[in-house]
Write a structure and sequence with these properties.
- The protein has helices at about 15-25, 45-50, 60-70, 90-100, 120-140, 155-160, 170-180, 205-225, 225-255, 260-300, and strands spanning about 5-10, 30-35, 55, 75-80, 105-115, 150-155, 185-190.
- The longest helix has about 40 residues, at about 260-300.
- Strands 3-2-1-4-6-5-7 form a seven-stranded mixed beta sheet, with helices on both faces.
- It folds into two domains: about 5-220, Spore Coat Polysaccharide Biosynthesis Protein SpsA, Chain A, CATH 3.90.550; about 225-300.
- It is about 50% helix and about 15% strand.
- The termini are close together.
- Strand 2, helix 2 (about 45-50) and strand 3 form a beta-alpha-beta unit.
- The protein has about 300 residues and is α/β, with parallel strands linked by helices.
- Helix 8 (about 205-225) packs across helix 9.
Length: about 300
C-alpha cells in the first residue's frame, strides 16, 4: 500500500526535523510531506534538509492546510500528525495495521496517556473533555479525544471529507464527518510528549475553544437540522409563553388586554417558533438526501487492504 505522512506546519523550526526523521524511520516506505502555512522561521529549510517533501498553503489556518493536503496527495493510507514533536511516531505502524486489519476509515491516537508531566495542559484537558462530551451527546459517543492531531485515515475517508473549516476546528469536523456517515473508526492510546524547549504552542485555549464550540453548533445545524431547529422553536415558544402569561392572567381577572404591543410581540414570536419547526422538518428531508449522496460517493472507494 502507498502510505503518505501529512504534517501541517506553522513556525515549527525547532521540532519539525525530529518529526520528519522519526516518521521516516517508523515508516521507511512512506512519503513524508510537510505543508508549510506561511512560517516566518526556518521551518521550510529545516524540513527539506530532514528529507521531507515540502509544499505550501498560503491561506492561514490548519483547516485550510488539511483541505489542501487531502486534495493534493494520492495514497491508500494517510497518516496526519502535528509538526510539534509531541506525538509518538513509533505508534504509526500499529495504527496503520489496525486500520487495515479491521477495515476502518479512521484511527485516532489519543493523548490520554502523557509520557511527561504537564505535556497535556490541564486547561486543554478540560476543554477537550467538555467539547468531546458535547459532540458525543449530539452525534454519538465514539471518541474520547476528539481533538487529537494524530490520526490515520483510509483513502475513502480523505476523498469524501468536505474540509470546510479553516482553523483548529478541523479536528471537530473530522470527527463529526465520521459520526454522521457512521464510518468504522477506532481510538488507540499513544504516548504524548511535551514540546521541545523553546517551541511555543499555536493553540489559544479560549479563542480556539470558542471557535470549536461554534463549529459544533454549525455542524449540528447542518447534520441534524431537525434537532437544531426544534431547539430554536422551543426557545422561541418559551419566550412567547413568558411574554403572554401575564396578559392572560390579567385578561382572566379583568377581561381586558392591557398591553397590545406585548400581545403582538408574543404572537409574532410564537409564529417564528412554528416556522422554525417547519424549517427543521424541510431541511431534515433535504439533509437525508444529501447524506445518501455522500454515502454513495464514500462507498465508491475501496476500504484499506481490499483488492
Amino acid at each position: 500500500m502507498k502510505v503518505a505522512v501529512l504534517i501541517p506546519c506553522y513556525n515549527e523550526e525547532l521540532a519539525i526535523a525530529k518529526v520528519v526523521r522519526d516518521f521516516a524511520e517508523a515508516l521507511p516506505l512512506a512519503l513524508v510531506y510537510v505543508y508549510d502555512n506561511n512560517s516566518r522561521d526556518r521551518t521550510v529549510e529545516v524540513a527539506r534538509e530532514a528529507g521531507a517533501i515540502v509544499r505550501g498553503e498560503p491561506l492561514q489556518g490548519k483547516g485550510n492546510v488539511v483541505r489542501r493536503m487531502f486534495a493534493d496527495i494520492d495514497a491508500d493510507v494517510y497518516v496526519m500528525v502535528d509538526g510539534d514533536a509531541t506525538y509518538h511516531a513509533a505508534s504509526a505502524p500499529m495504527m496503520i495495521a489496525k486500520l487495515v486489519e479491521d477495515n476502518l476509515d479512521m484511527v485516532v491516537g489519543t493523548r490520554l496517556h502523557s509520557e511527561e508531566e504537564g505535556a497535556f495542559r490541564h486547561g486543554h484537558q478540560f476543554g477537550n473533555r467538555m467539547l468531546t462530551g458535547f459532540v458525543a451527546w449530539l452525534f454519538g459517543d465514539r471518541f474520547h479525544d476528539m481533538l487529537s492531531g494524530y490520526r490515520v485515515f483510509s483513502r475513502r475517508f480523505v476523498k469524501s471529507f468536505p474540509a470546510l473549516s479553516q482553523g483548529f476546528e478541523t479536528e471537530t469536523e473530522l470527527a463529526v464527518h465520521a459520526l454522521a456517515l457512521r464510518m468504522p473508526v477506532a481510538e488507540v492510546q499513544t504516548p504524548y510528549y511535551s514540546r521541545p524547549p523553546g517551541s511555543v504552542s499555536k493553540l489559544n485555549t479560549y479563542r480556539d475553544g470558542w471557535r470549536i464550540l461554534l463549529t459544533v453548533i454549525k455542524l449540528l445545524k447542518e447534520e441534524r437540522p431537525l434537532l437544531f431547529f426544534t431547539l430554536v422553536s422551543l426557545l422561541f415558544g418559551l419566550i412567547s409563553v413568558a411574554l403572554a402569561l401575564p396578559l392572560v392572567f390579567t385578561y382572566m381577572e379583568t377581561g381586558l388586554v392591557p398591553r397590545f404591543p406585548t400581545a403582538f410581540l408574543a404572537t409574532g414570536i410564537m409564529i417564528l417558533a412554528f416556522l422554525s419547526l417547519a424549517s427543521g422538518f424541510i431541511l431534515d428531508n433535504v439533509k437525508h438526501g444529501r447524506r445518501e449522496l455522500k454515502r454513495l460517493h464514500y462507498l465508491q472507494l475501496k476500504a484499506p487492504g481490499v483488492e
